[in-house]
Amino acid sequence: MKLIDVKDCACLFCGGKENVQMVARDDGAASVAICADCREELATAWASGVFAQPEEEQTYSDAAKRVMTEAAAMSEEAFEEKYLSDTIDRVVFEYVRGYGQTELDGGAMGLLSIMTEKEAEEVAKHIEGLVEKGLIYPVAGKPGCFGADYPFTDD
Q1: Contact, 93 vs 82, CB < 8 A?
Q2: Distance (Å, whole) CA 6 – CA 4
Q3: CA trace torsion 33, 37, 38, 39 (10° rounding)
Q4: Interhelix angle 120-133/62-71, nearest 10 degrees
Q5: Three-state DSSP class for 143?
Q6: Residue 53 pLDDT more than 70?
Q7: Beta strands 2-5 and 32-35: pairing type?
Q8: pLDDT per residue as tens digits for the range 78-94
Q9: CA angle, corner 96, sides to 90 and 101, nearest 5?
Q10: 75/68 Cα distance (integer angstroms)
Q11: From the CB of residue 109, how many other CB atoms can be counted at a distance below 10 Å?
Q12: Rg of the chain on CA atoms, in Å
């Protein structure tokens, strides 16, 4: 990698025009114009490990795998009859499924509480139950976030 002094060039990150250098990679990749301040911030962030955090791989419980496999061969109506006879479970499931993956803490919990006309603690118990049954799953690396990615035969 090389730093090349340039004139009349703006920093890619902040738009500044002072102390700008081109960062040229040896492999021929596109060069990037970056000022001294942004280089310093980038180096600090790199040293702190911000970029070294690999994203957690999504895993599913055996129950979730079983339910997902079964659901793929069912209509949405048949799925509801088999798994979602409880109104609170159905509301929570449909809410999560509508987003694919969503956070259920804070405002979402308040909304679910209003929709089900139940206290947040009761809704939270139903969320735990849905996770245990495999109907929704915790999203890897995102505490309080759950997913329900179900394709049904009638979708």
Answers
A1: no
A2: 6
A3: 80
A4: 80
A5: coil
A6: no
A7: unpaired
A8: 999 999 999 999 999 99
A9: 160
A10: 12
A11: 17
A12: 24
Nearest to 118 by CA among 79, 84, 86, 96: 86
Question: Worst-scoring range by mean pLDDT, 23-27, 80-84, 108-112, 113-117?
Answer: 23-27
Q: What percentage of the chain carries pLDDT values higher than 90?
A: 48
Distance CA 75, CA 10 (A): 56
Question: Hunting for tokens 């079964």 — which residue is that?
Answer: 70
Query: CA angle, corner 154, sides to 112 and 80, nearest 5?
Result: 40
Site of tokens 């139950």: 129
Quick one: tokens of 123?
């809704």
CB atoms within 10 A of CB 78: 15
- Size of the chain in residues: 155
